[in-house]
Amino acid sequence: MREASKNSKELLKTIADVTSKIVEWIINLAPFGILGLVFKTISDKGVGSLANYGILLVPLVTTMLFVAPVVNPLIAFFFMRRNPYSLVWNCLRVSGVTAFFTRSSATNIPVNMKLCHDLGLNPDTYSVSIPLGSTINMAGVAITINLLTLAAVNTLGIPVDFATAFVLSVVAAISAYGASSIAGGSLLLIPVACSLFGISNDIAIQVVGVGFVIGVIQDSCETALNSSTDVLFTAVAEYAATRKK
């Protein structure tokens, strides 16, 4: 790119700006799409189905809500040695809300890049960490894999000790790196975790099917957690490095 002509650079910049604008339009229309998905689920399954799936949704959403305002600030404070909540809330408000509606970490990259710019972060850092984070920073995915797998194990009456649960957490965390950054990508990794307990692929796919039913809320919360922490930990890393100087 250094040897490219000025016109070529301007053309690429224009294409990038147009792409960002299209993504912004899609983000603005996303809430209507989410509303349509919820309506379709209720019309097909009935209102009563929400109560059954709610039993599974409650621990999923509760765990993610615990990680976002409790675990992440503790990690941020450990490295920054200052109150992290203004940064955490800013990331959740700007990045988390839009990611909730888009349900895609990749789609939310322009939002995160702009937020990093507004925070005054180093472009050389966030131009790498944000796209990379949208692919491998998948804390919400790890939570989903863990809880849906344990739900299947509990339903089948398979005993689980602490050591096995710990191994499951490690496998889920590693598997999350390979999760697709598009909506619903995390559910396809559940059969890998189920195989630890000898659960057949036929049953594991049924668990995936349940995940798709509750995916409107589950995937939205999951992506909000994933994408907001891309900016959060990019900022934490830079602030921590500045503190040590």
UniProtKB/TrEMBL annotation:
InterPro entries hit by this protein: Na-dicarboxylate_symporter (IPR001991), Na:dicarbo_symporter_sf (IPR036458)
The entry's cellular-component GO terms read: plasma membrane
Provide the protein name: Putative sodium:dicarboxylate symporter family protein
> Where can this protein be found?
Membrane
One of this protein's Pfam families, by short name?
A: SDF
GO biological process assignments: serine transport
**Keywords for this protein:** Membrane, Transmembrane, Transmembrane helix, Transport
Per UniProt, what is the membrane topology? Multi-pass membrane protein
Gene3D superfamilies referenced in this protein's UniProt entry, alphabetically: Sodium:dicarboxylate symporter (1.10.3860.10)
Q: What is the lineage of its organism?
A: Bacteria, Bacillati, Bacillota, Bacilli, Lactobacillales
For the keyword Transport, the answer is yes
Can you name one GO molecular function term for this protein? neutral L-amino acid:sodium symporter activity
- Transmembrane stretches in the record are 21-42, 54-80, 126-153, 165-190, 196-217
Task: Write down the superkingdom of origin.
Answer: Bacteria
